[in-house]
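Hi P.,

Sorry for the delay on this. The queue was packed all week, but I finally got your sequence through. Input first:
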Amino acid sequence: MQAPKVILHIDTSRACGRGILRGVSKYCRLFSHWRLSQSMPHYFTATSQSQNIRLPEDWLADGFIIGSGEIPEGIRQLGIPTIGIDIRQPIAGMPNIFGDAQAIADMALDHFMDHGFTQLAYCEFEGISWAVERGRCFAGHAREKGFSIAKHEVKTSEGHFIRDDEIAAITTWLNGLPHPLGLLACNDDCAKLVSAACESEGIDVPKDVAILGVDDDELVCLPNNPPLSSIALDFETAGFEAARLLDKIIKGQEKSASQRIILQPTHIKVRRSTDTFAVTDTEVQSALRFIGNHSHESIRVPDVVEATTLSRRVLEYRFQTVLGRSINKVIRAKRAERISQLLIETNLTVSQIAYELGFTDIEHISRYFRSEKGISPSAFRKEYRQYSR
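Then the structure:
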């Protein structure tokens, strides 16, 4: 029997598509024997990715994974199993890969709160479902914490925006907001646009506006000036799970419906665009800087107090007043984030990470991490790296 043929129509010009493609390929190598066929890059075709996908005769296949809002009518008529990647809108009646908007919003808000921001904003691309949902969750979580969110929509026309016009609109919006401002952009492309608006107006990033994107696409974030901080998403695992579901549908083990394949955030890659503390209290700022610079060490509250000229009682009061949390809570959050980064970005064992960060043993770091993240270090690594190369 001939192996099933699966067509991959995925935009590999962005981290999302490349990560999903790695996950699909990993599943195929381990559990399936699909004949994978990938569509050609945009520059080989006469039409853009945003236009309808045609279905040539040689595209007839047993399954599709498509990163487009438009599905060729031939696919629907033939009932070919299809997984959609929610680019602008989810594909109705079919499984789709969705980002966990609430988890993304929660991670962003915690990041800004840890850096002392009380003025917050959100910038999104108009009419894109996942962008709107992230903004809704961000605003909702902020309200629960007693903050309000200023929002701006980047206007689009047939899936495109007029860059100069939108930079001017973003500039006008930012000038009307109080600074310092913690701004979440719906993705890295949007964050780059906000950064360009700041540069055009002489708004300092991150001192006046700290910008956080989503996707952690290094080819977008690193060339920017300053480099953009971003929430990393586990595209590879989502691609793996999409392939697993498609395999079940092709084999008749599961029916194609509106299943949701959840794309989880893993951590924040902190770069210069949010490398600041938005507090006017110089003593609290000194304490926060000390915590950030020493989160790889086994620091305690007295160590932080020594970095200031205040007593412990006064500094605790100021932390609660300015940040709404204790010194110890900020230390633990920063340490847990450092552990998360090492679990995801390195091959160090949990024991080695414990040694590097000054924990007494693996039991100590495990208890510490679980109390902050609600999951053990090994389970966290397995969840977010189990399909990595």
